[in-house]
Amino acid sequence: MIITNTKTYEDTYKHKGLRIQLVSQLRDRGITDEKILGAISFIPRHWFLDNAFTEHAYQDKAFDIGQEQTISQPYMVALQTQLLSVKPKQKILEIGTGSAYQAVMLAYMGAEVYSVEIDPVLHESAKNMLKVLDDKLHKGTSFFQKNIKLFLADGTQGLPDFAPFDGILVTAGAPEMPEPYLMQVLKGGSIIIPIGTAKKQKINRFTRVDTNEFVREQLEDCSFVPLLGENGWGKTK
Ligand code: SAH
User: Fold this and answer.
1) What residue ranges define each of the domains in the chain, with the CATH number in brackets?
2) Which atom of ligand 1 is nearest the CA belonging to 96?
3) In sequence order, which ranges of 173-216 are alpha helices (DSSP H)?
């Protein structure tokens, strides 16, 4: 017997209405950047989840995307993006492609995104997701495929061949700051990274104020999946 897992890509008025509600919740929680809120109301988040979870896509919660990984909670995606204060044309390095939702948000806001994933299955499905989005939302152009470059690698090394970046966004929890990131962000740019234990972290922002000087801010509590790899929790896939 062949079971085909058909995924439908509809975006109904109901979905759009749920996104408007989500945007208003995020606004109440302190997300004020209209470009971020605009991205959230544009991107069909339910396409990044299994059809079975469509109903949950617009609750402000993290969700399983297979391979023991999650699509981050919309509030965390928005908060980290706001902390990065991304501007059009900036080069942004994202660690942990996952479902590609965060990368798509950054590209929608005009960034040139370099996103690294350690898990081959997620890396492949992210590639496919970009194709789907281009087909469905950009009438067959390759906007997302052009503006998001996907890499299968241990992201705790950064991407030395493509550095420097205007900003670095880490979407998995690290035990400490991976050293290689420090030299890969431009002066004036920031690294946003959850740091703490494997289960609980705080969002940290390190801003490079001078060649050898960073200002560190320790911000909100959060709970991301562990950052694996050499300069993370060590294990690899
Ligand atoms: N940004 C994602 C959420 C990612 S969850 C989204 O928008 O959906 C964290 C991701 O980091 C997982 O997909 C996990 O496989 C990946 N990851 C963990 N350690 C990594 C590493 N060292 N390098 C690259 N990706 C890593």
Assistant:
1) 13-222 (3.40.50.150)
2) 11
3) 179-182
